[in-house]
Backbone:
């Protein structure tokens, strides 16, 4: 995705003159689990210093989990939320300090958001690329969430108040996605779309997973990747690509995993499990002699991808033009799939990858979107902490 925004775009704060519905007045009491511990302290230091510096590492499943302590608090009638009432670039986003906390429907839970993450689809949606199937404006964006269940709706059987969860909050991200997303203090989500947060991961790490890991998993599954087959991942250092490498190796048993990235990210590819790391600034992957049973194109090079697939193989294309035998799909949210993948995350066999420029604090959502849209992120762009 080409850069068309500046990372220095300032965030604009709005108050009760906001364009989102005004909330009712009566709050309800419940328990909230606030964040503390090493990661919270680190984020506080980054926030004080401005834009944080960092190095590109895969977040370990054993690295400092967010410590949580029960505290009595109230679910307020109003919440802070980032929203837009017109399509456009990142400047349409406004901080609404008096948005209504979403109602909890049948089969849903209310989640106190601890962390959220951005995806390219968030930017495309905000730009109006999916207006025909989008929910009505104004919109609180955000698909990925990690947080704590603070209220349970009717028909909910598996989750309870106090559960730490993560997931993608809209079942079909392009077909009527939720009007009130995860870039807010609270979001209402169907129980079936959530899973318990993997043990050993903190909220920021968990928030960076749902849409990306579901996309990587469903894409590999649809290609028929199986033990003993080979796969080439185009864009192996991105949010989806980094997980596709790991899932191909650890979950699907691929015998050979190749991946592309720029020079400074080649060692990262190897650390994620790539057997063949291709520097696309020095080599054209489509001109190399190796052929693969599966090509996973996360960057929009479908015309080149089909040149390196074996006869009878599969090419999955996430963005850009599709050249036969390539195909495209739109991921669906599914909490049960996340539950199945949790053991790989808890064991450290599959690790979340957070861009070292972040996490971005909640006050810098505009800057986070601008950075995402440069196309230079390594892993996921995460928003943490959420107040």
Residues:
């Amino acid at each position: 995705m080409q850069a068309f925004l500046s990372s220095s775009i300032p965030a604009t704060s709005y108050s009760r003159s906001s364009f989102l519905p005004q909330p009712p007045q009566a709050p309800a009491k419940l328990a909230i689990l606030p964040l503390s511990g090493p990661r919270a302290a680190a984020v506080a230091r980054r926030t004080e210093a401005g834009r944080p510096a960092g190095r590109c590492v895969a977040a370990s499943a054993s690295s400092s989990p967010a410590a949580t302590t029960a505290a009595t608090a109230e679910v307020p009638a109003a919440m802070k939320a980032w929203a837009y009432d017109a399509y456009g670039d990142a400047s349409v986003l406004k901080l609404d300090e008096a948005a209504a906390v979403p109602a909890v429907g049948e089969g849903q839970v209310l989640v106190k958001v601890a962390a959220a993450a951005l995806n390219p689809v968030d930017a495309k949606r905000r730009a109006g690329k999916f207006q025909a199937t989008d929910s009505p404006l104004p919109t609180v964006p955000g698909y990925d969430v990690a947080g704590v269940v603070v209220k349970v709706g009717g028909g909910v059987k598996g989750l309870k108040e106090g559960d730490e969860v993560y997931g993608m909050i809209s079942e079909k991200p392009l077909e009527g996605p939720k009007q009130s997303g995860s870039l807010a203090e609270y979001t209402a989500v169907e129980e079936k779309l959530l899973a318990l947060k993997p043990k050993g991961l903190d909220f920021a790490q968990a928030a960076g997973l749902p849409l990306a890991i579901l996309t990587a998993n469903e894409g590999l599954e649809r290609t028929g990747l199986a033990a003993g087959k080979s796969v080439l991942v185009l864009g192996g250092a991105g949010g989806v690509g980094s997980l596709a490498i790991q899932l191909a190796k650890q979950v699907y048993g691929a015998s050979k995993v190749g991946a592309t990235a720029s020079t400074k990210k080649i060692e990262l590819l190897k650390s994620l499990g790539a057997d063949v790391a291709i520097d696309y600034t020095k080599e054209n992957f489509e001109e190399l002699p190796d052929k693969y049973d599966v090509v996973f194109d996360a960057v929009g090079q479908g015309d080149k991808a089909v040149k390196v697939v074996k006869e009878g193989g599969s090419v999955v294309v996430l963005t850009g033009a599709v050249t036969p035998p390539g195909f495209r799909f739109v991921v669906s949210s599914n909490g049960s799939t996340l539950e199945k993948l949790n053991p790989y995350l808890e064991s450290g066999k599959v690790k979340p990858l957070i861009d070292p420029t972040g996490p971005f604090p909640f006050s810098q959502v505009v800057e986070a979107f601008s950075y995402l849209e440069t196309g230079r992120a390594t892993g996921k762009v995460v928003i943490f902490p959420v107040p």
About this structure: The CA atoms of residues 16 and 339 lie 40 Å apart. The domain at 13-209 is CATH 3.90.180.10 (Quinone Oxidoreductase; Chain A, domain 1). Residues 210-223 form the longest helix (14 residues). The chain has two domains: 13-209, 212-327.
